[in-house]
Structure formats: C-alpha cells, structure tokens
C-alpha cells in the first residue's frame, strides 16, 4: 500500500482567480500526472475522476463533513456564520441528521416539487415581464432573482425583501472559497438572513393561512412540531434552504444560458418543447454544476492501493466530474439527446446521506425557467465580457451580459405537472 506522500500529484491552484476563470486545463493536467488524484497545498487532496467520486461519496461511514472543523480552521468560532455552519443540517452528528432528514424528506419528493410548478411559472413569468422588454441585460443578475423569489413564495414572505437578501446570499455563497477577507460581509448577511427567517416563522405562527391550504413553510412548521424538531433547528433548516438553493440554482441557470448561446437550435427547441427542457437541464447539470463537496477522513481507509489517514481533507469537485473523458463518451460535447447510462448519471446533487434534499425543486425550477426564458429572450448573443467566481466555493459565472430580441410568451396548452 502506498502513502499519499509517495504519489506524484499535480498541485491545483485552488482559490487563485485563474482557477475560477478556467479550471479545465488544470484538471486535464492533473489527470495526466495522476489518473484520479491531485492536491491542494493548503488544505488536502482533490479527486479528479468521476468514478472515484462516485465510489467514495457514498461511503459516509468513512468520511465526515468538514463544517465543524472548518469553523475553527478559518477562525470563525463565535460568529454568526461559525455558529450556523457548525450546527446546520450537514454538520449535525449522524443520529441528529437522520432525525431531521427523516422528518422532512417525505416533503421533498418529485410529486411535491411538481405541485410547485404553477408558482414557479408565475414567478419566472413575472420576472420576465420586468426584464425581457429591455433587450439587453446581465443574465446573471436576472437569474439571481429567480431562485430567491421562488423561496420567498415558498415561505409566503413579501417580495420587497428579495433584493437585499439576494445581496446577502451572494456574499454568503462565497464562504466556501475560504478567503478570510470576505467574512465581515458574510457575517452581516448571516445576521440579516437569520432575522428574516425568525420573523417569517413568527409571523406565520401568529397568522396561519386561512384558506385551508398549506405552503412549504406551514408544512415545515407543522412537520417540525410533530417531529419534535426544535425552533433553532427549524430556523437553521430554512436558512439552509435559502443558502443551499440560491447560488447553486442561479449558477446553473446562468451557465445553461451561456452554453445555449452557442447552441441556438437547442435554445429554440427549449421555447417550443417543455418536456425537452428536462433533458437540457439534466445535460446542463452534467456539463456544469457549481458544487465541490468537502469531507475529512473519519476512519482511515485504503482506496486503489493508497492509504488515506484519519483527518485528511478531501475534495470532490462535482462541478468538473461530468466532463471526465474516462467516464463519458463525447464528454466535451453538450448533447441533451445523449443516452444516459444509469450507472453514469450526473452527480451534481452529490451522493450518500447528504444528497441534495432540494434536487427535485431545483430541477423543476430550472426547467420552468429555461422554457419561458427561451420564449421571451429571443436570439440571445453575448454583449460583453464574462467573469468567473472563485473555484471552489459555489463556482460559476459572474456577469453574463447579453443582448436579444424581446419575445412573447407562448399560449400554453394544459401541461403535465
Ligand atoms: C442546481 C441546484 C442545486 C445543486 C447543484 C445542489 C447541490 C447540492 C449538493 C452537492 C449537496 C451535498 C452537499 C454535501 O454533501 O456537502 C446538497 C445538499 C443539500 N441541498 Fe442542494 N443543491 C441545489 C439546490 C437546492 C435547493 C433548491 C434546495 C432547497 C430548497 C437544496 C437543499 C439542500 C439540502 C437541505 C441539502 C443537505 C441535505 C442533507 O444534509 O441531508 N438544494 N445540495
């Protein structure tokens, strides 16, 4: 068995802006040096192969989420971000995580996500009414309003607060690029997000809906009360939904548009064919996704003849996993019609016991968005420079200026939910 120190590994310049701007050549170089592992000097080791990520991510008994350790490592103990990060869902000890996940998982099914589609359609349509007549927009800014507006509707909060909270979520989303100078702004955002969620829960408890229906907030409050979930945990969970669902969805929508600028025939078809949008989003999640999952080794293990000692930090860049040429045929071609091998699905939502709880909501809102965007933003073209967010962290495009012809929404046939 070999030790990690015996391996000749490529040093990925993680955290450098050059890496955010264009990580692909670095991962090619890393795979040329070693087929499945690279290193990040300051922190640990980075898996570069889809198959290795798939095999290890599900092994929750050997790995532990890094959040509690990271708070100390980044000197954020006793801060709002540090408190939340050390106690939020993914950071909880296994038994507490299981209780929380089991209590709420049944509410996050594809069926429940589909029931939210009319609200999602109405939300994207309202945003497009405001943005599409302009003919030239920053598409990233536009798409940043969508997932947060959906979340506001899910918890029945008045939409006036969207812009302020969006700026906060934007700042908070950069925490996992581990750049210390960002933390003062992140703390401000955490304080405001917590206050907003506290007020939203208190308002709903005081004034439940009277029409007999139950929205996601009421469902969470009731399920939490029945399942003995503490007020603190409920607040943290809803804060987590805001954080987890915001720049992930925004970055996928922005990158999908960026990709489709080069595929006008696919974009046209998105406007016509609602069902085809499912395939486009599934392929988009293989082609690009924003996530890098971090873990510590909790129990020493051997993988492919290499020893991974306890407390080694590991990174699984899901973001680049879908373009591993060893795993996907024509990995560098964007093709929504590709035949999906069930053993080689995209892993944008991770695997194992922390696999994304919001994945069906995310998929539904992205499909609904791209269908209507393609109708209202016709013949889009790049109208300026594109910039990139840091890698890792929630990676993606920062600023996508486009020009286009405003279009009309299609009259909808009754659509399958
Ligand atoms: C395209 C959009 C999204 C992507 C790519 C994404 C990705 C992920 C990933 C990779 C994880 C695993 C993190 C880890 O193991 O460290 C995760 C977990 C999670 N996500 Fe998402 N997510 C998205 C949207 C959402 C939305 C919209 C929500 C909520 C409405 C959400 C809620 C959650 C929750 C609650 C967890 C933690 C589950 C657990 O620990 O059991 N996500 N997500």
Integer count of domains:
1
Q: Roughly what fraction of the amino acids lie in strands? A: 5-15%
Helix content estimate: 40-55%
Largest sheet, in brief, is: 5 strands, mixed
Bound molecules: protoporphyrin IX containing FE
Order of helices and strands: EHHEEHEHHHHHEHHHHHHHEEEEHHEEEE
Distance from N terminus to C terminus (CA atoms, Å) equals 53 Å
CATH architecture descriptor: Orthogonal Bundle
Key phrases:
417 residues, alpha+beta, Cytochrome p450, 5-stranded mixed β-sheet, 3-stranded mixed β-sheet, 13 strands, binds protoporphyrin IX containing FE
Give a quick precis of the structure.
With 417 residues, the chain is α+β, with helices and mostly antiparallel strands. The chain is built from 17 helices and 13 strands.
Structure description:
- With 417 residues, the protein is an alpha+beta fold.
- It has one domain: Cytochrome p450.
- Helix content is 50%, strand content 11%.
- It is built from 17 helices and 13 strands.
- The protein has helices at residues 17-21, 24-33, 50-57, 67-73, 80-87, 94-105, 110-115, 117-131, 139-154, 162-172, 183-206, 216-226, 231-260, 264-272, 274-287, 318-321, 359-376, and strands at residues 2-3, 37-40, 44-47, 63-64, 136-138, 293-297, 301-303, 306-308, 313-316, 377-382, 387-388, 397-398, 401-406.
- The strands form four sheets. The chain has a five-stranded mixed β-sheet with strand order 2-3-9-6-4. It has a three-stranded mixed β-sheet with strand order 1-8-7, with no helix packed on it.
- Strand 2 and strand 3 (44-47) form a beta hairpin.
- Helix 9 (139-154) crosses helix 10, helix 10 packs across helix 13 and helix 15 packs across helix 17 (359-376).
- The mean pLDDT is 94.
- The structure holds protoporphyrin IX containing FE.
- Residues 65, 89-90, 101, 240-241, 244-245, 248-249, 252, 289-291, 293, 318, 348-350, 354, 356-358, 361-362 line the site of protoporphyrin IX containing FE.
């Amino acid at each position: 068995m070999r030790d990690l120190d015996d391996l000749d590994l490529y040093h990925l310049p993680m955290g450098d802006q050059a890496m955010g701007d264009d990580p692909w050549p670095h991962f090619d170089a890393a795979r040329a040096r070693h087929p499945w592992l690279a290193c990040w000097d300051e922190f640990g080791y980075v898996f570069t192969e889809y198959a290795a990520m798939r095999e290890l991510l599900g092994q929750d008994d050997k790995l532990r989420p890094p959040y509690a350790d990271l708070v100390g490592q980044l000197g954020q103990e006793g801060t709002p971000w540090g408190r939340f990060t050390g106690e939020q869902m993914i950071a909880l000890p296994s038994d507490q995580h299981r209780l929380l996940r089991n209590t709420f998982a049944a509410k996050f099914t594809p069926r429940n996500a589909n029931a939210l589609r009319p609200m999602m359609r109405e939300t994207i349509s309202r945003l497009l009414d405001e943005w599409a007549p302009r003919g030239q927009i920053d598409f990233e800014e536009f798409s940043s309003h969508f997932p947060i507006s959906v979340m506001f509707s899910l918890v029945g909060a008045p939409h006036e607060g969207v812009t302020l909270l969006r700026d906060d979520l934007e700042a908070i989303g950069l925490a996992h690029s581990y750049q210390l100078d960002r933390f003062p702004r992140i703390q401000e955002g955490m304080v405001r997000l917590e206050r907003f969620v506290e007020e939203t829960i208190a308002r709903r408890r005081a004034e439940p809906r009277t029409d007999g229906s139950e929205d996601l907030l009421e469902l969470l409050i009731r399920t939490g009360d029945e399942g003995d979930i503490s007020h603190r945990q409920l607040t943290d969970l809803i804060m987590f939904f805001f954080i987890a669902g915001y720049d992930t969805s925004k970055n996928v929508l922005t990158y999908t548009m960026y990709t489709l600028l080069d595929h006008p025939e696919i974009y046209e078809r998105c406007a016509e064919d609602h069902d085809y949008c499912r395939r486009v989003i599934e392929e988009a999640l293989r082609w690009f996704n924003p996530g890098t999952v971090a873990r510590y080794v909790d129990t020493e293990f051997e993988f492919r003849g290499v020893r991974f000692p306890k407390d080694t930090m590991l990174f699984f860049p899901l973001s680049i996993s879908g373009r591993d040429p060893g795993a996907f045929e024509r990995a560098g071609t964007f093709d929504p019609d590709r035949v999906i091998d069930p053993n080689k699905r995209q892993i944008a939502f991770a695997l194992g016991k922390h696999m994304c709880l919001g994945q069906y909501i995310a998929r539904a809102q992205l499909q609904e968005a791209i269908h209507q965007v393609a109708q209202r933003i016709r013949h889009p073209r790049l109208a300026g420079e594109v910039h990139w967010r840091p890698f890792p962290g929630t990676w993606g495009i920062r600023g996508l200026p486009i020009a286009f012809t405003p279009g009309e929404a299609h009259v909808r046939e009754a659509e399958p939910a």
